[in-house]
Design brief:
By secondary structure, the chain is of the alpha+beta class. It has 5 helices and 6 strands. The chain has helices spanning 2-15, 41-44, 48-62, 65-68, 82-90; strands at 21-26, 34-39, 71-77, 98-105, 108-118, 135-139.
């Protein structure tokens, strides 16, 4: 699954642009399902439904059914979201994914994750303090 997602990400970055953050985050330690966490400026410019449909289509096309059953959610984080900034200010990942186990970044504890992309961004515009919904969760199971 990791190699297939890494290849997919490389193709998408050529097609659409850089991803600031792309990771698989294990939902529960005893569970074998993962959430896909995505942050990119180009994703933020899309409507939620178009972004979700785009990613579901791409993920479905890249992974076999056995791997798809292990993904139960796709979540979009804004580039200026606190979690995005915590991860990307500490970790840099561009080419090969890394496994991140039982680690803490500031107050954020990560039991298990595979981080494919983590790029620090420089915000060109001030953060909108009126943004009350920085994360959009979408349950995509069954894919």
């Amino acid at each position: 699954m990791v190699n297939k997602l890494n290849n997919l990400i490389a193709k998408i970055e050529i097609e659409k642009g850089e991803l600031i953050l792309f990771m698989l985050w294990k939902n529960l330690p005893q569970d074998n399902t993962w959430s896909v966490i995505i942050s990119a400026e180009w994703v933020e410019k899309m409507s939620q439904s178009i972004a979700l449909q785009y990613w579901i289509t791409k993920i479905r096309g890249a992974l076999p059914v056995a791997d798809l059953s292990r993904i139960n959610r796709v979540s979009f984080l804004k580039p200026n979201d606190r979690i995005t900034k915590l991860i990307t200010s500490t970790i840099r990942v561009v080419g090969s994914p890394i496994t991140f186990n039982k680690n803490q970044i500031a107050e954020l504890f990560i039991e298990e994750a595979v981080i494919f992309r983590a790029r620090k961004i420089s915000l060109k515009k001030p953060i909108n303090s009126q943004n009350r919904n920085p994360i959009f969760n979408h349950n995509i199971n069954p894919i």
